[in-house]
Request: fold
Amino acid sequence: MSAAKAYGVLVTGGTGYIGSHTVIELINQGYEVTVIDNLSNSYAEVLDAVEKITGVRPYFSSVDLNDKAATAGVLKERNIQAIIHFAAYKAVNESVSKPLVYYRNNLVSLINLLELCDEYSIRHFVFSSSCSVYGEPDRVPIDEFAEVKPAQSPYANTKKIGEDILRDTVRASTQLKVIALRYFNPVGAHPTSLLGELPLGQPLNLFPVVTQAAIGKRGTMMVYGDDYDTPDGSCIRDYIHVMDIAAAHVTAIKRAEENKMKAAYELFNLGTGNGLSVLEVIHAFEKYTGVKVPYEITGRRAGDVVRVY
Reply:
């Protein structure tokens, strides 16, 4: 791995849920990792867990990617051959009420990074996209050839537009190669239990909401809608372990590094191909833990699709 050890990877959003687990996998594979995160939804203490698990503390900068000059300063100082871009606002419901905040943050940061890739001759870029680009799919399971539908939320639209920006940039570039990973719903934690999903404030993803409701850390959890066209009326999603998603990002970096890409722009889905409803997840948790989860059915939530897996 001598060549890989000299290969520098910038992970944006690297103290976040998926980003931090990916940082661990990169370090374990011998990569030199640089982390950028403005800590808007994560803790710098996550790096303590990364160091305990790997024995390595990655270089960290808390700059905001929308500050292009500050971001350039990091790239100038560090040895970067590739970027894995996680950093983005990601709350579907919040994006509906604050669309311009999401468009500015998620797209300006991406454009800044791509302009800096050209300036600093960074050739490989892995983009954290989302299954939300498929909108309300015609059929499930979804493959990469499924139609990209009109976005159901501004968050989803930033992912679709982000892909469009990347595809157009690759066409105009003589050196940039991009892999976009459209993943479904990440769950789980590192096997050591030293790292998991711990956002600032109230979690929005289903699994931490279920566990916090079960242990009494929060009140009754809300199930948004039981009148969807599904067997039990609640939304259906594909849940994939965060370590599998992290491993896929390392695989994408290796694919680019080892010149195994079949095109300058590639995209892949990351999922299990199986869907579970919100109520199925709650009842499975209760069955296997013996702990009742207090929940209440409420109205549908803006931006949610019926099923995607």
